[in-house]
Specification:
- The chain has 231 residues and is of the alpha/beta class.
- It is built from 9 helices and 8 strands.
- The chain has a single domain, classed as Alpha-Beta Barrel (TIM Barrel).
- It is 44% helix and 18% strand.
- The strands form 2 sheets. The protein has a 6-stranded parallel sheet. A two-stranded parallel sheet has the order 1-8.
- Strand 4, helix 5 and strand 5 form a beta-alpha-beta unit.
- Helix 1 packs parallel to helix 8 and helix 3 runs parallel beside helix 4.
- The radius of gyration is 17 Å and the shape is globular.
- The mean pLDDT is 96.
Amino acid sequence: MNDIAANLAAARARIDAACARVGRDPGEVELLPVSKTHPLDALRVAHAAGYTRFGESRPQEIEEKASGLADLDLAWVHIGHLQTNKARVVVEHVAEFQALDSLRLAESLDRRLRAAGRRLPVLVQVNSSGEGTKGGFAPDEVPDAVRALGALDALDVRGLMTLAAHTDDQDVVRACFTTMTDLQARLRDEHGGGFDALSMGMSNDFELAVECGSTCVRLGTAIFGARPPLV
């Protein structure tokens, strides 16, 4: 527990240094602590260090943590695959949804959001590596998907999210991130702006992601240490 605040400070320093290398404003890049499977006390330490937004991927865990940490002013960011029958949790508890990976899910969220009278910021998940184990739209599917999402008033499409290839080959990882920035530029051209959010980079590749244009890095292990086993 005592290392969490130090880990946050160290990761933030690495983000700032990566920004400096490419002439970016460090204020453009959010460090999103990914707290999935970690205990409530760990989030309290991170909150005391100044963090109020946390990444989670299991709806049940979001509900439990929202209840257990109700005394804190926290915002939950859903970053993992969501089954349509769990959309209720997102509508009730989530401030941002970064893993919109199908139009079917989008339509389910839109219906529930309209019924609840709210609008939700979302990022479209892109499978930039082409790996079958990863979810998301293929890059060439994204423009059509974004046009279809424009008909869903309760979804506020802010940008894109990806998980790069899991490899030590930096050229392969960089190619995933470049695919994303190219796609972002294409969407901006087509829609006259917007799509400012680009969530990419995790504990093993976040500095390269920042150098390539990420606006949000999702850090779990680098902040909280090894993930406890699921129960």
